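Database export, one record per block. Field names are fixed; values are copied verbatim from the stored entry.
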Amino acid sequence: MNANNSKALSHDSNDEDKSFQQYDLDGLDFKIVLSGNKTGGKYSLLEILFSAEKENEIPLHLHSRETLIIYILEGNFSFRYGNEKIVGNQGTVLKFEKDIPHSYKKTGKTPGRLLILFIPAGFENFFKDVRLNQSKMKLSGEEDPVLLHVLEKKYGGKFVFG
């Protein structure tokens, strides 16, 4: 994992409520559209932008706290949800329950965009924590087991790579 530049961007410089944070994680842009501190912790909303250049993948993992509602705004994707393999394109809506391993991959040569609702909120803080922890640790080309343990303990679930 490689978390780069976090940026606080704003749609209107006079309106701080519309600002969002953006993180680059392994070449994917994650935008926190709506954080849990604005919803009383009930939910958070993230947008993930996939470039057209390559078929990026979110590796197999699970959430022990959050249910996810995924809406494909743009592009073609393949999903693994438990033992199911699902193909989706623009307009597809999926619900992933907590404690079920899942992964997703943008396929084809066009950009992709996913809008993901996390219920309850809290997972949006993952990106800030990854960035902070990576600045404290020197990572080799492999996943850092200490970083993974910290993230799994704080956010629950299990991150499975490979």
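Remark 1: Residues 1-17, 136-141 have pLDDT under 50 and may be disordered.
Remark 2: The two ends are 13 Å apart (CA to CA).
End of record.
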